[in-house]
Structures are given as structure tokens and as C-alpha cells.
Amino acid sequence: MTLIRYQAPGFAPWSAADRWSNLRDELNSFFELPVWSNFARGGQLFSGWSPALDLYQSNDNVMAVVELPGMRKEDIEISLHDGTLTISGERKRESGSNGEKAERSERYIGTFRRSIALPTRVDASKVSATYRDGILTVTLPKAEEVKPKQIQVS
Amino acid sequence: MNTLTRENRDGDRAQIEQFVAPPASVIEAGDGYKLEVEMPGVNKDGLDISIENNELTIVGRRSLPVVEGTLIHHESRPENFRRTFELDPSIDANKIGAKVEQGLVTLTLPKAEHVKPRKITVS
Prior knowledge:
The complex is a heterodimer of chains A (154) and B (123). Chain A has helices spanning 23-30, 34-41, 44-47; strands spanning 53-57, 61-67, 76-81, 84-91, 101-105, 110-117, 128-132, 135-141. Chain A is mainly β and 154 residues long. Chain A has two domains: 17-47, no CATH class; 48-93 and 108-146, Immunoglobulin-like (Sandwich), CATH 2.60.40.790. In chain A, the strands form two sheets. Chain A has a four-stranded antiparallel β-sheet, with no helix packed on it. Chain A has a three-stranded antiparallel β-sheet with strand order 3-4-6, with no helix packed on it. Mean pLDDT of chain A is 78; it is low at 36-46. Chain B has a single domain (2-115), classed as Immunoglobulin-like, CATH 2.60.40.790. Chain B contains one helix and nine strands, in the order αβββββββββ. In chain B, strands 1-7-5-4 form a four-stranded mixed β-sheet, with no helix packed on it. In chain B, strand 2 and strand 3 form a beta hairpin. The longest helix of chain B is centred in the N-terminal third of the chain and has 4 residues, at 11-14. Chain B is elongated, with a radius of gyration of 18 Å. Chain B starts with 10 loop residues before the first helix and ends in a 13-residue tail after the last strand. Mean pLDDT of chain B is 85; it is low at 1-6. Strand 1 of chain A pairs antiparallel with strand 6 (70-73) of chain B, so a sheet runs across the interface.
């Protein structure tokens, strides 16, 4: 049963004893172990569900792409406060308990909340979002004063 | 019921294409099972479900939204999804149904008629 996400096959984190020979290399590689990125990505071990989030920046927009499989559009909430984008919601158990019995439950059911600080100021009134194939894309247009500007020499 | 599910960790095939095993839930209903697998970014076209040697394999290839701009914070994984399940002998492999909705793949696995009690008439 999968408690942490799948790691690349053939990767033996601690087996080679000679890796200790160079402490600096060892410390550096230690922080590159997949298990750390699992904490950063999922955090599922301790805090329920923290969906994976990618953030993009272009000249005009900041875009957040969030993996939210199997949600209903109505159950997703997006809020913006003090330069922090928060995506929250609730994944409800489907249908009900009419004789149904869970044999295995790896999918997270319940509420979740995911926040991220935005790199620049955005225009809160122009934020838009789409939800397709279980992926939420939030487009946040940058505030006029932080957009790159070209100044004409008169 | 442990025979219904099995992890796929065979490294040989993974060298060709890297996959990640998505979270899955198995729900038993009266006349069969329901299998839910999370594959964000996968739609009908990217889904490949096959049964071989009583093993059900679900492969999901993502069609991710194209976003312009530079990536400044990255948590998603680039790999596609694959997961294999061993089918319980009571499942009728010919009647398995599948749908995908918002990145959630749902399979219905009905129990075969022959496992239900039956009366044989003497002619």
C-alpha cells in the first residue's frame, strides 16, 4: 500500500555505505532525496491533502495550476488576501452508505486548504479560473503598477 | 480482498517510460466493486485500460493546460500515471465499465453471474 508517492525504481537511498566518505556530498544529496520533495509536494502524511500547485509568471499575469482530481466546480473556493492566494474546498464522499464498503481508501476525502504567497501584486477584481480534467487554472492579472513598462524618450 | 490490488513496482518496463502510481480507492457494493483512481490532467483520450493475465492495468497520459510564462514554483510531477490491479476471480472481466470525470477514473467491476447461486434444471 502506498503511503508515500512512488519513487524512481533502482534508487537505493541508504544502501551504499561508501557514500558517507564525503560528508559534503552526502549532505547535499540528502536534501535532494525524493522523500523531501514528497513532503513539499504532498504533505499528505501529516496534514490531510495538500494538492500540488505550480506557479507561473508572465509579463501580464501570475498563473496557478493546481491538481484537484475528482472535485465538483462548486466545491472549490478561491480567495485572495494580502498577496496570498488560497484554494480551499471539500471533497465529498459520493452517493452514500447504501451497502457500500470501502476496501481500500487512498483517496483523500474531506476539506483541504492550500495557500501560496504571490510574487507580485495582482488585480483582485480581474482574477479568473477554469477547472478542466481535474486541474484548476487560476489566472491573476498583475496590478498595473507592477507591470513592466516601456518609457518613451520624448 | 488483498488480491484485488497490487502495486506496480516492476522497474524493467519503467525504464522505457516513467510512471507514477496514483492514489486509488476500492469500494465494494452489493453486486460488484467500484474502483476510483486519481489522474489529474487525464481525459478520455489519454486513458488506456487493459486486462491481461487477470491483471487490470490503467495508464493515464496527461494533456496538461498550456500556460505561458516562466515556472516559478513547481510541485507537480511530470510523469504519467500507471497502476495495476489483480482482478478477483469473482469479477466478470467482460462487463467492466469505465468513465473519467475531472481527472477521476471510475471503473465498475461487476461480479460474474457464475458466482451467484444458480439452479440447474434436469432435462
